[in-house]
Amino acid sequence: MSPLLKDYLNQRIVIVTTDGDCYIATLEGYDKSVNLLISDVRRRSDGELVSIALTLRGSEVVLCGLLTNDQPEKLGPLPMLKDTKNKIADEYLIWEEALKTSSSR
């Protein structure tokens, strides 16, 4: 992904994060881990300014694409994207049981 990002430098991009958030921003820089340095960060749904400058870890980025001139920066109300972190309630209890089972064999 990183070699292609150089084509997006200093241009408006769309970013979807693992939290399901969708942002529009200007790509200022990146590294080999796809950590992104972005500016003029706005929510895609309502155009509200989130931050003047922001660094996103590569592990938080699901999608990064170029926003073309014919695409609107603000889309209006959008359905909330599903959280992609796969949180499991009381996960530690499941692992405790799995470890008990495997150690008793």
TrEMBL record:
Key words of the record: mRNA processing, mRNA splicing, Nucleus, Ribonucleoprotein, RNA-binding, Spliceosome
Domain Sm: 3-66
Organism: Torulaspora globosa
Listed InterPro entries: Lsm8, LSM_dom_sf, Sm_dom_euk/arc
Function summary: Plays role in pre-mRNA splicing as component of the U4/U6-U5 tri-snRNP complex that is involved in spliceosome assembly, and as component of the precatalytic spliceosome (spliceosome B complex). The heptameric LSM2-8 complex binds specifically to the 3'-terminal U-tract of U6 snRNA.
SUPFAM superfamilies per UniProt: Sm-like ribonucleoproteins
Family as reported in the entry's similarity comment: Belongs to the snRNP Sm proteins family.
Top-level taxon of the source organism: Eukaryota
GO cellular component, one term: U6 snRNP
Subcellular location: Nucleus
Gene: LSM8
Pfam families membership: LSM
Name this polypeptide is given: LSM2-LSM8 complex subunit LSM8
Subunit structure: LSm subunits form a heteromer with a doughnut shape.
GO molecular function: RNA binding
Gene Ontology BP terms: mRNA splicing, via spliceosome
CDD domains (UniProt xref): LSm8
Gene3D superfamilies in the cross-refs: 2.30.30.100
